[in-house]
Design a protein that fits this description.
The chain is 4% helix and 26% strand. A hairpin with a 7-residue loop joins strand 6 and strand 7. By secondary structure, the protein is mainly beta.
């Protein structure tokens, strides 16, 4: 996918995830709001993964797919407003209408999302965690020892979070696959693909995470100080994204989240998405991700690199669809 400059990604990441009411996991929703999620754990160099991240929604997810076992737990979602398209192509209205959507093709450069093989974590990532005394104090870190015999992975761990079941906004990491206010891009069209695959493991088993698909209908509308849109179309009851839930083990395994399997949100995955968000329902969490890509039909085996922006490191390395 088309990559952003590190400056653009960092600016969008600064917007971060403005986590408002409606964050859910396994039926429990927060009622408050949180400040913007912290940016990436490291500044990321130009051409490292694409996109910065914005709103992280959370939610329980029903249905899971993948080569490893996934668990399913459904929850009713609150409805959000906004436009979307389920018939193919960009939505007719909203931030993603017309040239607001970039079309992806079924090719390795467009399928590639992240493999953590750059010099630093991409500024496309942001993290949120409802911890005291300083919220969002835990970041995603690049660590040695990736999946599929690769060199690095992304590790997200922390303790003491106020979960959504306790009325907090919980924890998660978000990857911006599309939002680039400078270019006027807010969505990527995903009709060429059937889902997202990733490798993951946890420090303890079983551990549950959900992959949330952030849509313009579920992502809160927002603007920059200059009045330029930098979010979605949702006006009320936002951040209830469609999602797929997985149960991780302590060993690397590949998981596949088919768009059609995502449930539990206030909208269905159609032709476009804005971001991807991995959420944990736990107060103490510890999981690692690697080799993330869109797929069509069958998830890619092994490494998903090389990085289309840089030619790749050991196994590739870059991030999502182009913010």
């Amino acid at each position: 996918m088309r990559r952003l400059s590190s400056k653009t990604m960092a600016a969008t990441a600064a917007y971060g995830s403005v986590l408002a009411a409606g964050i859910c996991f396994s039926g429990a929703c927060s009622t408050g709001s949180s400040p913007a999620a912290s940016g990436t754990s490291s500044s990321g160099s130009a051409g490292s993964s694409s996109g910065s991240t914005s709103s992280s929604g959370s939610g329980s997810s029903s249905g899971s797919a993948g080569s490893s076992s996934g668990t399913a737990s459904s929850s009713s979602g609150s409805s959000g407003s906004g436009s979307g398209s389920s018939s193919g192509g960009p939505p007719p209205t909203g931030v993603c209408a017309g040239t607001g959507t970039r079309t992806l093709t079924n090719s390795q450069p467009d399928a590639f999302i992240e493999d953590f093989e750059e010099a630093a974590i991409s500024p496309g990532w942001s993290a949120f965690n409802d911890v005291s005394p300083t919220i969002n104090s835990f970041k995603m870190l690049q660590v040695p020892g990736g999946a599929a015999s690769t060199a690095h992975a992304g590790h997200y761990a922390g303790t003491g979070a106020k979960t959504t079941a306790q009325g907090g906004f919980g924890v998660g990491i978000v990857y911006n696959t599309a939002i680039d206010p400078t270019a006027g891009i807010y969505c990527v069209e995903i009709d060429a693909f059937t889902g997202v695959s990733f490798w993951a493991k946890a420090a303890t088993a079983p551990s549950t995470i959900s992959l949330n698909f952030v849509l313009p209908q579920t992502n809160q509308s927002s603007t920059t100080d200059a009045g330029v849109p930098n979010g979605g179309d949702c006006q009320t009851n936002c951040f209830n994204h469609p999602r797929v839930t997985f149960t991780l083990t302590t060993s690397w395994a590949q998981y596949s989240a088919a768009f059609a399997s995502a449930t539990g949100g206030s909208a269905k995955v159609g032709s476009v998405i804005q971001e991807l968000a991995w959420l944990s329902p736990d107060a103490n969490w510890d999981f690692t991700l690697d080799e993330i890509a869109f797929y069509n039909g069958t998830a890619p085996a092994g490494a998903v690199g090389p990085n289309p922006a840089t030619g790749g490191g050991s196994s590739g390395g870059d991030g999502g669809a182009g913010d």
